[in-house]
Amino acid sequence: MRVRSDAPPRRAQAPGEAGSCTGPADHCPPPDARAQPASPPLPSQSPRRGGEEPGREGRAADWDSQALPGAAVRRGEAMSALPGLRPEVRDSCASLGFMLLVVLLVGLARAGARKRLHRPAAHAFVSEFLGTLQLCCCTHELLLLSEQDSAHPTWTLTLVYFFSLVHGLTLAGTSSNPCSLMMQIALGGMAPEMGALRLLAQLASALGSRYCMRALWSLGLTRYHFGERIFDCRNPVQSDLPKAVMTEAICCFIFHSALLQFQEVRARLRVHLLAAVITFLAYAGGSLTGALFNPALALSLHFVCFDEAFSQFFTVYWLAPSVGILLMILMFSFLPPWLNHNQIITKKE
Asked: What angle do CA 284, 133, 98 make, to 5 degrees?
């Protein structure tokens, strides 16, 4: 006979609950330890659930771990770029030294010719030849510098002003420009025979400067010096033909008008004024035609282009400056007397 009990059935304890140890007594923890609940984790040790953002300290640590390598890379790039400036500075200094050396050698040659050549025709020919040689060689090197540093036109314009000043101080008594000869002949300041002799010297020097620059560039003084460069045609005309013709004609008109008006100004101030005018014209028309307004200089710089496109370059660099000179002469001949100068006063050497 079974005895019925009203007590609820005994539930089996899950492993890990208090009193659930079924092993020997010496291996079971005391009852108080088994019944003690587990302490909640500290906030700093709380596990990060999926999708939960890290705390402020965690974000700062992650940002530092990502930003520091990037900053180190940027510093490394900057440090690696610094040594790259040295060859450019060295090449610029070499080019400047070369131009100043040309000025010095031409000055010594002119001084020797002044002492040894007593015939006016021979002295005029040699002086004009050396003056045009200095102008063409320095402009070749200056054009090379401007092509390598086209992103900084201020530096190029500074060099244009400086060497215009140097040429004005060292080439007294020479024009180095066929348009200036035309102006002096038209205004009665020079005999046609002497003008033709000086023009011949200018053209011979313009062509001879190309061979001089080829020999010097073949030495490889800088990274940009190589002899084959002189045979490349780098077309400076960056506009249509009518605009290019107007640019060269206006530049020639302005420069020779200033040259004519500044004759009565003191020599020291006149040189600075003419250098400023040349720099302004180079800035205004340099991007269109190069603003040469000098046929002999254009022949020296772009002789290969004359061979390939003779009609275009003859029109832009020879015919347009001649038209500008003729317009200037007509204007100064028919305008009021205070603008009219009948003679060209040349500075004696």
From this structure: 80
- CB of 174 within 8 A of CB of 106? no
Determine the distance from the C-alpha atom of residue 345 to the mean position of all C-alpha atoms in its chain, rounded to a whole number.
37
CB 272 within 8 A of CB 165: yes
Tokens of 314: 């003859």
- List Cα–Cα distances, 99 to 136, 141, 187, in angstroms: 10, 7, 34
Show me where the domains of the chain are located. Answer: 88-339
Quote the pLDDT of residue 136. 94
**Count helices and strands in the chain by DSSP H and E runs:** 12, 0
Distance CA 162, CA 165 (A): 5
Single out the residue of 167, 191, 16 nearest to residue 106, CA to CA: 167
**Amino acid 59: pLDDT:** 45
More confident residue, 58 or 321: 321
Residue 173 region by backbone torsions, left for phi larger than 0, else alpha for psi between -120 and 50, else beta = left
CATH topology assigned to domain 88-339? Glycerol uptake facilitator protein (1.20.1080)
Residue 30: per-residue pLDDT = 53
- Radius of gyration in angstroms for the set of CA atoms belonging to the chain, rounded to a whole number: 42
- Inter-residue contact 322 to 251 (CB < 8 Å): no
- 137, 164, 136, 198: which is closest to 346 by C-alpha? 198
Mean pLDDT value of segment 50-70:
43
Tokens 């500044």, residue? Answer: 262
Supply the pTM of this predicted model.
0.70
Amino acid letter, 330: L
How many Cα atoms occupy the beta-carbon half-sphere of 291 within 13 Å?
Answer: 18
Q: Are 270 and 276 in contact (CB under 8 A)?
A: no
